[in-house]
Amino acid sequence: xxxxxxxxxxxxxxxxxxxxxxxxxxxxxxxxxxxxxxxxxxxxxxxxxxxxxxxxxxxxxxxxxxxxxxxxxxxxxxxxxxxx
Length: 84
Fold this sequence. Notes:
β3 (about 45) and β4 form a beta hairpin. About 0% of the residues are buried. This protein is mostly helical. It starts with 6 loop residues before the first helix and ends with a helix. The chain folds into two domains: about 10-45, Double Stranded RNA Binding Domain, CATH 3.30.160; about 45-84. The protein has four helices and four strands; from the N terminus they run αββαββαα. It is about 50% helix and about 10% strand.
């Protein structure tokens, strides 16, 4: 016999709902992050200044730059320091 937990707990998995797009979340902090990044004053799109790719929020853009352009940024900084 497999025990899944209390039935009422399973039914209330997504207790928090966005008032603008009706997307549901199981945690309040996830709802707040969604509201800020998708519907907030500073919601995207944000363009990468290196490759011009667009992102929905600043956190996605930051991760993109760290993953794909970190070496480019470091090389540029080193060139500036050498020329200074």
